[in-house]
Amino acid sequence: MSVAEKSWKFADILASKEISARFEQVRRWFFLRESTYDMTNRCNIRCEGCYYYHGDKQFAPENGDPAAWQALMAAEKARGVTFVVLAGAEPALVPELCRECYGVIPLGAIATNGLKKIAKDIDYRLHISVWGNDITSRTLRGAADMLKRQIENYQNDARAVFVYTFTPANIAEAARVAETLTRHGLKMTFNMFSAPVGYTGPLRHNAASLAATAAMMRQLLRRFPETVLFSHYNIAAHTNAQGLHELFTCSYPRRNPSTAVGLGRSFRQYRADLNWDRAAACCVPDTDCTDCRHYAAGSAVVTARMYRHAENPQLFSAWLDYVDTYLAVWVKGYEKSANLLDSLVKPPTAG
Amino acid sequence: MSAIEQTIIRVATIIINELKLEDVTPETFNPDLDLVDEVGIDSMDLATIALSIRDEFAIRIDEDDYPKLTTVRIIAEYIGDKLKEK
Q1: What is the pLDDT of residues A95-106, one digit of tens each?
Q2: CATH number for the domain harbouring residue A130
């Protein structure tokens, strides 16, 4: 009988000192409760397939009143939110609002294109979006010298993680980007382009691009272990032919009617006018759920499915690698450990 | 002590151990407390508790059933039903 076929008790899985230690390490962060906030409806660039500029949320009028944001954060803290994600459209354009958020809830991350430097006193994790080399970025995002300017802004900045979004068109150039980031001592993780609802452009992944992306991710994980914050199980989960919702049943309110416990109970996605809509609430609103392989979605959706991964030591180790990666990517100061597994494991079915 | 009362004690023991609750024993744990609203457990706590229950009672808990498991008594009844199905 193989390890995978044996019926394992959870206690027996935790009998491994290595697994038990990693579980205790990540478990300390189970208190994180996230919500996300569109800070402004403005952006200094326009990217092909940007999910922010799909759907209604882009038309929400901005609330630029710092006092209103401070009050919102206080209310969010009171209802148990411990981690904020400041996103859409470009938070760096409203540093005074980001600062208000940081003053009330100091754990969080900002999704930014990295072209306008965010002051160091806003000490959140910074996710700097990279869509390829500077030629590709020029084409898809309409901005020149993006990586060069991003690196200039965030060289030696412990807040920064460069998030490389794989599309069918930029897979090969990821290697050169990883080399460049490694040369500058910067951290990198991976995202998958996930099509907005109704998107018919060329960036939607297909079977061939998923396979090629997985191969490139494995190569970069092997070549740049100090730079790349990722695991083999991240690769398995995010390059699967099935999207995250089909694989793991998304637990964000948009796809989860239950308000009893977990994300369905606590998660909100605020628009720039400080309103939110449960029917639209997820980490990447207006993304086509059938195509969603977004890193932010996986960070919550895969992590929430601990029970189904506690089937055997190998599968649970894969889940621990995923959670360890999630924490290293999102929580400033959390150090990524060496992955427990160095091979791909197939995601489990529900049960 | 009835079977359901025994199960309540065993479930309360698991919860106390997993959450490292102090100032309460399995016997004094109110089985009708709302675990989310009154005890303050979250989805990851619930998953950990579900795994301990899986070990203790040799039953599987469907992830879709988590939202229903709001009190120790309801969990004990759920376990009883699962054991009857075996």
Answers
A1: 999 999 999 999
A2: 3.20.20
User: Is residue A336 assigned to a domain?
Assistant: no
Q: What is the CATH number of the domain that holds B81?
A: 1.10.1200.10
Query: A182-221, pLDDT tens digit by residue?
Result: 999 999 999 999 998 988 889 999 999 999 999 999 999 9
In what order do the strands lie in the sheet containing A108-112?
Answer: A187-192, A160-166, A125-130, A108-112, A83-87, A34-38, A269-270
Which residues on B lie below 8 Å from A32 (Cβ)?
none
Find the chain B residues whose C-beta atoms sit closer than 8 A to any C-beta of A: 36, 41-48, 50-52, 54-55, 60-64, 66-68, 70
CA distance A176 to chain B (A): 39
Q: Which two tokens stand for residue B18?
A: 């997993």
Residue A346, in any domain of the structure: no
Per-residue pLDDT band for A319 (boundaries 50, 70, 90) equals very high
pLDDT of residue A71: 98
Helix (H, G, I), strand (E, B) or coil at A327: helix
* Residue B36 to residue A265, Cβ atoms within 8 A: yes
Q: Locate tokens 């009143």: which residue?
A: A65
